[in-house]
Amino acid sequence: MAQLGGTPILVLREGSERTRGRDAQSRNIMAAKTIANAVKSTLGPKGMDKMLVDSMGDVVITNDGATILKEMDIEHPAAKMMVEIAKTQDEEVGDGTTSAVILAGELLKRAEDLLEQEVHPTLIATGYRLAAEKAYEILEGIAEKISPRDTNTLKNIALTSLTGKGAGTAREMLTDLAVDAVKMIAEKGVKKIDIDHIKLEKKTGGSTEDTALISGMIVDKERVHPGMPKTVQNAKIALVNSALEIEKTEVDAKIEITAPEQLKSFLEEEERMLKEMVETVAASGANVLFCQKGIDDLAQHYLAKKGIFAVRRVKESDMKKLASATGGKIQTSLEEVRPEDLGKAGLVEERKIGGEEMIFVEECQNPKAVSILLRGGTEHVVDELERGMNDALRVVAVAMEDGKYVAGGGAAEIELALRLREYAASVGGREQLAIQAFADAIEVIPRALAENAGLDPIDMLVALRSAHERGEKTAGLDVFKGEPTDMKKAGVIEPLRVKTQAISSGTESAVMILRIDDVIASSREKMPGGGGMPPGGMGGMEEEY
Predict the structure, then answer these.
(1) How many CA atoms are closer than 13 Å to the CA of 223, on its beta-carbon side?
(2) Residue 305 CB burial class (10 angstroms; 0-12, 13-18, ≥19)
(3) What per-residue confidence (pLDDT) applies to 420?
(4) The pLDDT value given to residue 543
(5) Which residues contact 325 (CB under 8 A, 6 or more apart)?
(6) How far apart are CA 490 and CA 280, in angstroms?
(7) Is there a contact between 145 and 403 (Cβ–Cβ < 8 Å)?
(8) Where does 334-410 have alpha helices with state H?
């Protein structure tokens, strides 16, 4: 609202709310801190789990930061930006989502103290960016090299990722599976490892120990005809994405049949066409057929007579993975099926898992797509196992791609804080304050690890700092013993990218929120189809959670 000669001029829609200056900043920072606090207790091996119940009554039990924030029904725009951090971290690295969110929250908390000392937000932003750049440099300097053949180090990286997750009970076995799976799909000379080539198939029943790696594919389907063999040794697999059915015409067509013989010959012709299709498959030497579309009942009968194992309506993603696993090519029509295009597998078998039929394509020679069958007592256990396994696979792939790792357990953060404080002294001006605030903020990770383990955070931080000042660069917090320990020797290590990505996304989000000094929220009532802020503006974050 503006005034012109005493007459009010409405610029914004009536009912809109505008928050400016320090008020807008403190509300946004409050929202971000609330989000960070919501996930803080899940960090580390002794972190707790959250139970999230949605409007439909579905329950999710997890301590995975990205999952928690995704399931929370968040309204505040600044809080939504914190969710984006977790999402980015999850997509880029797969692990460290909680750390990234906590770091962003702590950076904003420290910035708030500086704002009260009349330090301008732009100066804080500049200082934070300088500190982040220096942090990448320091991390690069303390990172150790790793080769894809170094299986033990890769297993330790996967083990660190799984520690504290719901999947923690069978950690040793799961880490072996994760490393073996990533190594199988890694191609020589190709830097990027596509984790999508590892299919995670969940089935309730059994225990976590029953989880298995299949050097091939699992397809959640059953064979189309009971007369087909249940097991095929030395399988030659045809992958077809066209239907084994009589195609309907594109245009409306009428066929007039005036005599019974015509009907008979019409049906015989249909039968002959279907028989021909099956003959084409058999002639190629295929004894297993995966079809992306339908298979006619009569065609199923002929396939069964030929002893061909057939599966219909296989998902496109599964077809692509089958091609990668068996070395076959997906054919667009049956006429194109040739012996050299067939995939090969030592065994194709239908098995009953958890009360349902599933097809196992195993013993592939050099599979570039593999499957992991996840088992667990309840649905929640299997879901959490999938989330843990996803993280483990991603960190192993990232470590193999970058070839670098750093010590975990807060060791890298304490070393960063120590070196950043030294760097701050060499930077003049008020930016120095922001760099020092960044150094203090980064120590929130070891502090949270200590808090979640029921240890005294101040005592632990002091002990860690003095260890690092003595030159013990890999000293981190052993939450089980409650003392600083050499994390490299203990095998608690993480890929370098987990740390750099967390610092990058945390700093960028904190800077973006800091630079907002004006929030204009349209009134929800006036806007058809929603949008804008809830009535009462953007306060009351505590009540919302």
Answers:
(1) 26
(2) middle
(3) 92
(4) 39
(5) 216, 217, 343, 345, 361, 364, 367, 368, 369, 370
(6) 60
(7) yes
(8) 379-402
The Cα 379–Cα 20 span in angstroms is 47
pLDDT at residue 527, rounded to an integer = 42
d(CA 363, CA 344): 9
Which residues are known to be catalytic?
64, 97-98, 391
pLDDT digits (tens, 9 = 90+) for 61-114: 887 788 888 888 888 888 888 888 888 888 888 888 888 999 999 999 999 888
Q: How far apart are CA 261 and CA 449, in angstroms?
A: 83
SS3 of residue 181 by DSSP: helix
Paired sense of beta strands 330-331 and 231-240, if any: parallel
CB contact set of 408 (below 8 Å; sequence gap of 6+):
160, 476, 487, 492, 493, 494
Residue 3 has pLDDT above 60, yes or no: no
435 Cα distance to chain centroid: 32
All domains in the chain, ordered by first residue: 9-144+407-540 (1.10.560.10), 147-215+368-402 (3.30.260.10), 220-366 (3.50.7.10)
Q: CA–CA separation, 351 vs 326, rounded Å? A: 19
Which distant-in-sequence residues (6+ apart) come within 8 Å of 362 by Cβ? 214, 215, 216, 345, 346, 347, 348, 349
Give dist(CA 520, CA 16) in Å, integer. Answer: 7
Q: Which amino acid is at 88?
A: T
Query: Phi/psi at 461 (nearest 5 deg)?
Result: -65, -40
The candidate with the shortest Cα–Cα distance to 110, out of 417, 432, 431, 437, is 437
φ, ψ of residue 493 in degrees (nearest 5): -135, 155
Dihedral sign, Cα of residue 22, residue 85, residue 61, residue 163? negative
The answer to whether 19 and 537 have CB atoms below 8 angstroms apart is: yes
